[in-house]
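queue> pop job 88
queue> type: inverse folding (structure -> sequence)
queue> payload:
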């Protein structure tokens, strides 16, 4: 919808993807504009700053070829919007919400601001419902709860893309399979990664319940800032208008933050830590806080942002700020990956602060929390003994110590290293008991006697014994 035909012709200068226009103080922050060059070619853009002197516009395409004397700017829409529809499920879009699957454009039921609607804190319901990802380490030890935001911290070269695809394929809210949907947004992808995600979603049938937004590395940096907002707007619409339980997977937030830094540099802003903008915390919070459950609304939005930590540094500003805003983290481990364990999730530095809300009797199983605690303690003990053995050798170990050492190996091989299997929570707890049953009952100090009497001695089915896989 064209709100105003007025043109702004006083383009002062161009800096990278930014256009500085004089005498345009009546443009609104966040407005969408068209930039026309001398040949009549149109480029899209968004207003990111307005002062009495000028307006700053992010150009969605290259600024090459734009001439200060002939370029003009005209308003298209008062704020960036996305046409949304339930028919978006099963479709693929680029980072700006344009179809890339060869099918016609979506007939929009509504056009919503991509900045979302503020969620009244008093209207938020407590997240209390377990989401089953089919991955034992997450489901048992770092449980994902409906309405939570739980990031995955990975590193360069680690298989977080494969992990993201597996979660997208397997995740479900038990009892709500029919109204569960996945919104998947990827930023800064190489062509190989675009092909991987496209083929993986189509091959496994996950596309039938998913909406994909794929932003490529050679797309403008500005587009990377809009991609997660497009995805979250779609998720909120499906959740709060159509009652879907939506899992939003955002990868890779590091590429998003790099784009934020690039735009900040072009705007000549004073940099903060490591050159990133000082407002990066606020910007990330504007994404992460768009998760939750709302009283009186049947749907929910759950987020799993994925970021690759530069140099595996968890104190880097991106994971550091993310950790402050979100409710825990899932850590992908380089050592486990080098052993061929997939998915290489290390449960020791991983944490889900809302786990206790959504597990236990009547939700998953009565022994779930105790099993999680016992696995954590036993694995930590086994890793400590590995370090001791490296110094003294196994001869210095007691028989119980040797059992813990064996437990650590079995835990990595059979429990963590499940490959691409889709395990129910019951399956995962069965594997856990099968491994714990190799320890003496006297060592299971975090599990109640009733649970030990009921489950101790559980045998792992042959299918679990062959579950270790590399990717």
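queue> result:
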């Amino acid at each position: 919808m064209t709100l105003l035909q007025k043109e702004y012709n006083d383009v002062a200068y161009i800096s990278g993807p930014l256009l500085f226009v004089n005498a345009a103080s009546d443009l609104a922050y966040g407005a969408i504009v068209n930039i026309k060059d001398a040949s009549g070619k149109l480029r899209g853009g968004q207003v990111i700053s307005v002062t009495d002197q000028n307006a700053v516009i992010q150009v969605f395409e290259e600024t090459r070829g734009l001439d200060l004397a002939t370029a003009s700017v005209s308003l298209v829409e008062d704020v960036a919007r996305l046409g949304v529809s339930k028919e978006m499920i099963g479709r693929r879009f680029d980072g700006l919400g344009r179809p890339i699957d060869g099918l016609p454009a979506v007939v929009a039921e509504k056009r919503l601001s991509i900045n979302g609607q503020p969620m009244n804190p008093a209207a938020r319901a407590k997240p209390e419902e377990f989401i089953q990802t089919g991955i034992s380490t997450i489901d048992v030890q770092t449980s994902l709860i409906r309405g939570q935001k739980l990031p995955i911290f990975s590193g360069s070269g680690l298989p977080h893309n494969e992990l993201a695809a597996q979660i997208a394929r397997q995740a479900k809210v038990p009892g709500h399979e029919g109204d569960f949907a996945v919104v998947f947004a990827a930023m800064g992808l190489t062509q190989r990664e675009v092909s991987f995600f496209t083929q993986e979603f189509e091959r496994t049938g996950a596309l039938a319940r998913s909406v994909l937004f794929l932003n490529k590395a050679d797309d403008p940096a500005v587009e990377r800032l809009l991609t997660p907002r497009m995805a979250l707007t779609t998720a909120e619409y499906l959740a709060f208008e159509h009652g879907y339980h939506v899992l939003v997977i955002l990868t890779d937030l590091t590429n998003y933050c790099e784009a934020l830094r690039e735009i900040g540099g072009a705007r000549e802003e004073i940099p903060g830590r490591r050159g990133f903008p000082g407002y990066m915390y606020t910007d990330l919070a504007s994404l992460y806080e768009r998760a939750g459950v709302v009283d009186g609304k049947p749907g929910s939005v759950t987020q799993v942002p994925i970021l690759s930590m530069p140099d595996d540094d968890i104190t880097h500003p991106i994971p550091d700020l993310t950790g402050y805003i979100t409710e825990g983290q899932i850590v992908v481990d380089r050592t486990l990956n080098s052993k061929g364990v997939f998915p290489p999730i290390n449960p020791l530095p991983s944490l889900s602060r809302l786990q206790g809300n959504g597990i236990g009797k009547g939700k998953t199983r009565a022994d779930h929390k105790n099993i999680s605690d016992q696995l954590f303690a036993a694995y930590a003990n086994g890793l400590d003994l590995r370090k001791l053995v490296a110094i003294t050798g196994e001869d210095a170990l007691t028989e119980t110590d040797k059992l813990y050492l064996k437990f650590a190996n079995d835990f990595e091989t059979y429990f963590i290293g499940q490959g691409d299997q889709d395990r129910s929570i019951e399956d995962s707890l069965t594997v856990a008991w099968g491994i714990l049953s190799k320890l003496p009952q006297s060592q299971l100090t975090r599990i109640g006697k009733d649970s030990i009497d009921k489950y101790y001695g559980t045998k792992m089915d042959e299918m679990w014994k062959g579950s270790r896989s590399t990717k």
